[in-house]
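Internal tracking record. Fields below are filled automatically when a chain is submitted to the structure queue. Please do not edit lines marked as system-generated. If the sequence contains nonstandard residues, flag them in the REMARKS field before resubmitting.
Queue: standard
Priority: normal
Entity type: single polypeptide chain
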Amino acid sequence: MAIEIKPVTSAKDIRTFSEFPYQLYKDNAFWVPPIKADERKALDPKRNPAFAFCDAKFFIALRNGECVGRAGAIINRLYNEKTGKKYGRINRIEFIDDKEVSTALVRACEDYFRSEGMELIHGPLGFTNLDTQGLLIEGFDHLPSIASVYHLPYYQEHFEQLGFEKENDWVEFRLTLSEVAVKKGIRGGEIVKKRYGFELVNFKSKKELTAYGKQIFSVFNDAFQFLPYVTPLNDDMIALYTQKYFGVLNPRYIKIVKKDDEVVGFFVGLPSLSRAMQKAKGKLFPFGFLHVLKALKKPDVIDMLLTGVKQEHQSSGVAVILISELQNEMLKAGINTMETTGIFDTNQNVISNWKNYDHIQHKSRRCYVKQI
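SYSTEM-GENERATED OUTPUT FOLLOWS
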């Protein structure tokens, strides 16, 4: 039977779109499901503030009335202004291993982008760089962090047969700490603090942490402004991410560095919630939150979600202070394993640092691009 591509227009379509991965990855030991309510919110222009600077359409692929794939098509106007190019972003694409399905979904996205005057399609990418991004191409037998992605191995072949080429790759590491390395890092951090007058801020409560929310995101906007796929977060987006993430963060693993009472760098670590999210099955209530609370209280892995340092201080060793202090907290809690999030494979400074640890580079994900 022919594939029907249906634009997502109704509440029923949104449910079908957001539920499809749960069918596709059923019984997969490595897929980490997102919260269903958050996914539905992301598709709603009235509830997702990213629609203030993005246009988007979403599609489901049907065969005999059954959903066999989905894809989103996003135009981030701010990013196109930043780059001077006419990009469309393919987003949240999932499909069965059937080239008729993947081809139909990509063509639907391309048709929409052409109608809006776009000339290039790249992705998978989200509304912002804090949304899902990248296609997993290595590490299918490793559990991702909640800040990463998971896909099935056949996706890469589908993308490349459709004419997509590599634009950028991210690599991810698992790091194992040793007391010797941690003590060395702490000594280095103390030297940097004395040399430049930096001050470390620790947190004991979520209330203390939330008070720094706007300053943290201000550093974020400054630190990442020149990276691919990044656009500055406005106040509404900052409020969204503060509400979404700050409620589940353990303040113990958040570190801030200040200079002259100004925040110049931050580190956000999070006890791994991947297993907890699998047990929650996309719902925090009535019982999913119990799995999350347990994971937050008794972690055995820390996910290194985000590190940001203001441009003017990036060569001053602020990151040394942040990482060393996080590792000290981990050893106090009896934790010796960290999972990094994606690092561009061209960022040899950070990669060479991770290789100083007992490590494995176990996952890679790719952003593809093609002309349309």
